[in-house]
Write a structure and sequence with these properties.
heterotrimer, A mainly alpha, B alpha/beta, C alpha/beta, A: MetI-like fold, globular, B: alpha/beta, 25% strand
């Protein structure tokens, strides 16, 4: 099998490093953002929610292009020298999945808030502390939001190929390698790499599922 | 919040600053990358010079744009008129011929437009147009696309006006366009290198080759550091110098697929 | 002491509908107060107004203690459906105590769980308790705060008779320990068993206030009389 002689592991490793970093950053930003949007009351709140939901469907190519222009030497952040590096890919993926995580967190917290609101206020909690408690209490449901982000990050090709450049050994990840092999007309190898990618995503999800159900048995 | 940003930035920088510190970025074309030339050629240079060469492979037009934004140190492409425009804008330091290969007209073995047997690419295109036989165009401002448009012009056909449903503008790289042509049993202009290394040929084969109008010249330029101060001019110049040196030229000539040479060095000493 | 609690022409409207018409009353420490009335009479709204979960749209609510933080700390509420955190039974009580900043939270938690008969389940996930146990845990959580005043909003409406009896026993114990009970219910037997006085609400108005015995034997208002008979003409 050609797939096994392919220089697979560095590519898989980079895919995971980039996607997991993006998920980490997007989660760190998306959790408080989603929770705040769920409990805060301010004018234009529903407009913000609609925009956030719409951003879940951001076309990766558009994100890639915007991040490209931002990080280009001729762009405002050009001096960082991040274009065509894994760092640029992390930024693009973070932009892509932040709305997904934030919107799903917002929904989950909002639903839970309906249930918890009176009880928490009866105990004398303000909105901020209350929302943190809710966030902690539904932490296992938030797994779903984070996994949705991870799925998108791992599967995405349009943005990372633009800002990463698909450089062999530097920014080539699973999806861009698949795109390249498809371009070369080596459909068998492309498909084989695709299967490897699917297997990895499946394993990640299975691990998360097991972790979640174990935790749920433990905490109810 | 400021703290989060700083941590995120540190993380990004650490991700990007991995491994090789001495590297240059070369914007080049899909044909050089996908034909396997770089995979063969670059390790030779990297070993000798200790400089990693990172290749971003896109269409010639886009590669030149990457150079125009200062996002690459060297551009290595194949569309002389576009390259000359790039030079005239002051974006490059000096343009060098590197090598050539040729384009080939690829088409279905059944040859519905009856073009095989001739060496005359212009006559062949006229026949395709007359027969309204399916033709796939790159349509992506690449060197190959540019060459194709020039050939239609040479044939006296205003393709922008004359194109009908038989002419499929795909806006894709060489490989995807070849995939499309294989699926549609269409004619397509390809560079020989990509065609030779392309695997999903379906029923396609070379129908016209050897016309001197199918000549495909590659050139290399250091991006002008006076316009783009971040350009790594010493290392980039080292790469350019090596490519056009007898040693680099010999290496290019040595790259073969199934015994067939893909690129013919022609740098002027 | 935060009691007595005084309501002066307190009214509440939401979504263009008046749910509580201007209403004045005073609640003293001691006697258990039962809030009675049909569904939609305004029982829950009145309890939430008094507890501070809703802000009145008219009138004033006055506690005898002017310090809002103390007023909040010395009252608690148990809801019809207990809201338990996804943590252990003990953690649920501890959480409430920590929020209020109680010093000997651990000891008080053990005490409260023993009181409601859940000491054996202290480390069990709270959400795995049965309905009756969950409500007992909610009572323990409220009880651990040592409130001067405990609101109970139809605490047994979702429970079977056995669990209802257990809850009633606990409420009696809290009453006996000196906590002022204010409880809404539409279970007349429960009102008789637990109450000293009745506030009867009808369509957002206080239709009658009377000691339990007199309310059931000689209701003064026609609405109360009809309610007791089980003839409910407004439904």
């Amino acid at each position: 099998m050609q797939v096994f002689t392919y220089e697979l592991w560095p590519i898989v490793g980079l895919s995971l490093r980039v996607s997991l970093s993006a998920v980490g950053i997007a989660t760190a930003l998306g959790l408080p953002l989603g929770a705040a949007l769920a409990v805060a009351r301010f004018p234009g709140r529903s407009a913000v929610n609609v925009v956030l939901n719409a951003l879940m469907g951001l076309p990766p190519v558009v994100v890639g292009l915007c991040v490209y222009l931002l990080l280009s030497r001729a762009g405002p952040l050009g001096s960082l020298g991040l274009l065509f590096t894994p760092g640029a890919m992390v930024i693009a993926q973070t932009v892509l999945i932040l709305p997904i995580i934030a919107a799903l967190v917002r929904q989950a917290v909002e639903d839970a808030w309906q249930e918890y609101d009176e009880q928490l206020r009866s105990l004398g909690l303000g909105r901020l502390r209350g929302s943190l408690t809710v966030l902690y209490d539904i932490r296992f449901s938030l797994f779903t939001a984070v996994l949705a982000g991870l799925g998108r990050a791992c599967a995405e090709v349009g943005a990372v190929i633009i800002v990463g450049g698909n450089i062999d050994g530097v920014t080539r990840v699973m999806t861009t390698a698949i795109a390249l092999e498809t371009s070369k007309g080596d459909l068998g190898l492309a498909l084989g790499l695709g299967l490897v990618l699917i297997t990895i995503v499946l394993l990640l999800n299975a691990a998360a599922y097991l972790l979640r159900s174990a935790a749920q048995r433990r905490y109810g | 919040m400021a703290l989060i940003w700083r941590i995120a930035l540190a993380l990004l920088v650490s991700l990007s600053a991995q491994a090789q510190e001495r590297f240059i970025t070369v914007a080049s074309t899909t044909s050089t990358e996908q034909s396997g030339l770089f995979k063969y050629l670059l390790p030779i240079f990297e070993k000798k010079a200790g400089i990693q060469v990172r290749v971003v492979a896109v269409g010639t037009g886009q590669a030149l744009d990457i150079g125009r934004r200062g996002d690459a140190d060297v551009v290595f492409v194949h569309a002389k008129p576009l390259e000359e425009k790039f030079m005239a804008e002051g974006q490059g330091v000096k343009r060098y011929d590197v090598m050539y290969n040729d384009f080939v007209l690829v088409g279905p073995k059944s040859d519905p437009a009856k073009v095989s047997g001739t060496k005359d690419i212009v006559a062949a295109l006229r026949k395709i147009r007359a027969a309204q036989a399916p033709f796939v165009s790159r349509g992506d401002r690449s060197g190959t696309h540019f060459a194709e448009l020039q050939l239609w012009k040479d044939a006296g056909i205003d393709i922008a006006k004359d194109k009908g449903p038989w002419y499929r503008d795909t806006g894709q790289g060489m490989g995807p366009a070849l995939n499309t042509a294989a699926a549609m049993n269409a004619y397509i202009l390809s560079d020989r290198g990509t065609w030779l290394s392309f695997k999903n040929r379906g029923d396609l084969g070379i129908v016209v080759e050897g016309d001197k109008r199918l000549f495909n010249q590659y050139g290399i330029m250091l991006v002008n550091p006076e316009k783009h101060p971040d350009v790594k001019k010493e290392w980039g110049q080292q790469f350019v110098d090596w490519i056009i040196s007898p040693e680099g030229q010999q290496a290019i000539a040595g790259y073969k697929i199934n015994g067939e040479q893909l690129f013919f060095p022609d740098a002027k000493p | 002491m935060i009691l007595p609690l005084r309501l002066e022409s307190v009214a509440y409207a939401a979504g263009g509908r008046t749910l509580i018409h201007p209403l004045s009353l005073e609640l003293q420490a001691g006697a258990s107060t039962i809030v009675l009335g049909a569904n939609g009479a305004g029982k829950s709204v009145l309890m939430r107004l008094m507890h501070g979960l809703l802000r009145p749209t008219g009138g004033r609510i006055l506690w005898s203690d002017p310090e809002p933080a103390r007023v909040r700390r010395l009252q608690a509420m148990v809801f019809q459906r207990p809201v338990l955190l996804r943590r252990s039974v003990a953690e649920n009580v501890l959480y409430a105590l920590r929020v209020t900043g109680v010093a000997d939270a651990r000891r008080r938690t053990d005490e409260a769980l023993r009181e409601v008969g859940l000491a054996h389940a202290a480390s069990q996930p709270a959400r795995t308790l049965s309905g009756g146990e969950q409500q007992r845990l909610a009572l323990a959580r409220a009880w651990a705060l040592h409130p001067e005043l405990l609101f109970l909003d139809e605490p047994t409406a979702n429970l079977d008779p056995g669990a209802t009896r257990e809850i009633e026993t606990l409420i009696k114990a809290f009453d006996a320990a000196g906590t002022k009970i204010v409880m809404s219910t539409h279970n007349l037997g429960q009102a008789r068993r637990l109450g000293d006085e009745v506030l009867f609400l009808h369509q957002g108005r206080l239709a009658e206030r009377a000691p339990v015995e007199r309310f059931f034997s000689q209701p003064q208002s026609p609405e109360a009389a009809a309610f007791i008979k089980g003839e409910v003409p407004w439904l």
